Amino acid sequence: MENHSMLLSLNMSPFNANSGDSLAGTQASSPMPPQYGSPPISHYNSCQQSLAMQHHQQTTMMMNQNMNDLDTSHTFSSGANSISVVDMSASYQISGPATSLTTGDLPDTKDGIEEVCPVCGDKVSGYHYGLLTCESCKGFFKRTVQNKKVYTCVADRGCHIDKTQRKRCAFCRFQKCLEVGMKLEGKFSLIQIRVAHVRLHPRHTTHLRNCAD
DNA sequence: GTAGCCTTGAGT
DNA sequence: ACTCAAGGCTAC
Question: Where are the domains of chain A?
Answer without folding.
Answer: 126-180
